[in-house]
Amino acid sequence: MPQRDAVTWNTLLGAYVRRGLMVEAEKLFDEMPQRNVASWNTMVTGFFSAGQVNKALDMFDAMPVKDSASLGTLVSGFIKNGRLHEAEELLTKRLRVTDMDEAVDAYNTLIAAYGQVGRVSDARRLFDMIPRGQYQCKTNNMRVFARNVVSWNSMMTCYIRTGDVCSAREIFNEMPDKDLVSWNTMIAGYTKVSDMEEAEKLFWEMPDPDIVSWNLIIRGFTQKGDVEHARGFFDRMPERGTISWNTMISGYEQNGHYDGAIELFTKMLEAGGTPDRHTFSSVLAACASLPMLRLGAQLHQLIEKSFLPDTATSNALMTMYSRGGALTDAEAIFKQMPQKDLVSWNALIGGYEHHGCATEALQLFEDMRSARVMPTHITFISLLSACGNAGLVSEGWMVFDTMIHEYSIAARIEHYAALVNLIGRHGQLDDALEVINSMPIAPDRSVWGAFLGACTAKKNELLAHMAAKALSKIDPESSAPYVLIHNLHAHEGRWGSASVVREEMEQQGIHKHPGYSWIDLHDKCSCLLAFCGVPVSQSKKHRDEPGNSTRGLIGQVFGLIVTCLKRRHSFPVFPSQAPIANHYALLDPQLHIAAICKASLIPSLMMMC
Question: Distance between CA 355 and CA 69 in Å, rounded?
Fold first, then answer.
């Protein structure tokens, strides 16, 4: 059997250390016939990892020879054990002048550690201890200790972590030499504070931007909401990696440009890009928001063929299916998940709430508690909304009480809005008003809007006017008070009063934004708009214009609706197996008929009749 050399001994020693077997490692170290500096460094690292700081120090002091890694190992060990003061004391007081040529890397490590815990002043003090030029040892006139580019970059990063971009820029401007990390760090600092004007200016000053530089500037513009500018940079990229595609796709999705996210994902596949879990999560979120259930199901198949879905991807799939109405598929994914996190539970509870399945949402919450998963404020918003949709007043009160007293979660404005909506729409308007008056925080438009909606639904004109006045005071540009009061008068047949409200709304220059609904038809997403945002005079003029291309189709659609009503004695509902996937929506005569005709709904209506 060949004799073991130092490499073999060190390999075995490292294996013991990585597994935390320090007793065995120490015994092996004592038996080693020959030790080198790597052997000593391994033992120092092992003792620090095991939390045995004193033994690590003794081992370091006993080292016959030290290299640059030895000092770095000691400083990193102090940092990992939260003993930054001792690390600085070692560097500034105990270090011999002959060791100074190896110290700059250790200084840089400690500067970065100070920045990570927010101690910028300590980092700057240590940074200032490193001379700008070479430190001259008087005994041998040897070049030893000076700042390098990592020193400058570390100090700049410290300032950026705390949002002090001005001080970071001063460091950047003073740097004698800059590398790619320097430029990218400074650009990242500007994007962090959304100063994209300076970030873009600095980007174009870079001598040779790399793919990281391009990704940073694209992410900065998407975070600021300027997806058009971000797309301009994306299209000019000399090369794109998966991160580049993901940055732009997620930027579209996070800013509500769902069609843009899907369109870019298609181009990624055509260009031969390789989507990963982050890509699919963003595209699935876009499919869930449109919703495009059929495309989402195809993505599900592609994911299963590409890799085993992790928790985040499964959560995105579950959200997509639940929002699209395929609760059975969402439940199947939830049950098959080997590991569920908080998002998993909230996603399915939110899906139940979205589709009015309050009993299932409450039962899943009980399962969540049995699994000892701590709910968050988002969980209770979904539960309260589910109870409100189903009219479960007592259960809603129990949920609200559980949130405050059992989980010590302070009620937010969203919880109060859901609670007011729950009890108000059940006819308990006085109790709802009492909740509003007892709120520890000022009610906002969502709270007063929920109360106003409940008052108009229960035809309580006095309280409705009071709520409308409060809502108009908070949000003068909101059309909700006018529309709901108008509808209240119209429902009671007081058309004169309704006209007065409408005229006042127009005099104030307030317009209702048109309502819309997405449908997935023939593998294409279309949007149905309502006429509500268009003044009556304009909409009538538009309908009566000679040669209007939609006029004949409008008559056909209304004729088909009347036929359906006569045959079914109810409004037609699109079934889940029809070309419109999982969009359960009643036809409203005020729907934008031109959009309906464009979406080719006439054949669908004919099939239903």
Answer: 60
* pLDDT value of residue 135: 46
Phi and psi angles of residue 520, each rounded to the nearest 5 degrees, phi first: -105, 105
CA-to-CA distance for 486 and 334, rounded, in angstroms? 45
Cα–Cα distances in angstroms (integers) from residue 440 to residues 380, 423, 431, 447, in the given order: 18, 19, 16, 13
Q: Give, in order, the Cα–Cα distances in Å from 14 to each of 22, 28, 32, 188, 343.
A: 10, 11, 13, 37, 39
Count Cα atoms within 13 angstroms, Cβ side, for 242: 8
Give the dihedral sign, CA 406/407/410/415.
negative
Query: What pLDDT shows up at residue 548?
Result: 44
Sign of CA dihedral 477, 483, 484, 486: positive
- Summarize pLDDT for 113-137 with one digit per residue, the tens: 999 999 999 999 999 998 876 544 4
584, 325 Cβ separation under 8 angstroms: yes
DSSP code of residue 584: -
- Count the residues in the chain: 609
pLDDT at 529: 64
Cβ neighbour number for residue 479 with a 10 Å cutoff:
17
Q: What is the H or E stretch that residue 558 is in?
A: helix 551-568
Rounded Cα distance, 110 and 587, in Å: 66
Domains of the chain (ranges; CATH) run 411-513 (1.25.40)
pLDDT of residue 526: 66
Number of helical H runs and strand E runs in the chain = 34, 2
For the chain, helix, strand, coil in percent to 5 are 70, 5, 30
Helix (H, G, I), strand (E, B) or coil at 583: coil
Distance CA 172, CA 325 (A): 53
Parts of the chain with a pLDDT under 50: 1, 97-98, 135-143, 532-551, 553-554, 557-558, 561-562, 564-609
Sequential DSSP letters for 504-523 = HHHHTT--PPPPEEEEEETT
Are the CB atoms for 429 and 463 separated by under 8 Å? yes
Instruction: Find tokens 């000593």 and name the residue.
Output: 40
Residue position matching structure tokens 């000053």: 205
Measured from the Cβ of residue 172, the count of other Cβ atoms closer than 10 Å reads 22
CB within 8 A of 308, min separation 6: which ones? none
- Please enumerate in sequence order all residues whose Cβ is within 8 A of that of 332, keeping only pairs 6 or more positions apart, or say none: none
**In this structure, what token pair is assigned to residue 157?**
């990063």
Please give the pLDDT value at position 292.
83
List CB contacts of 508: < 8 A, sequence separation 6 or more: none
Amino acid occupying residue 496: G
pTM of the model as a whole: 0.73
Q: Please, which residues have CB within 8 angstroms of residue 530's CB and are 6 or more apart in sequence? A: 514, 515, 516, 588, 590, 591, 592
pLDDT at 412: 95
Whole-number pLDDT of residue 523: 59
What single letter denotes the amino acid at residue 574? F
DSSP H stretches of helix in 391-520: 393-401, 413-425, 429-437, 445-457, 461-474, 480-491, 495-507
* Cα separation, 550 vs 598, whole angstroms: 9
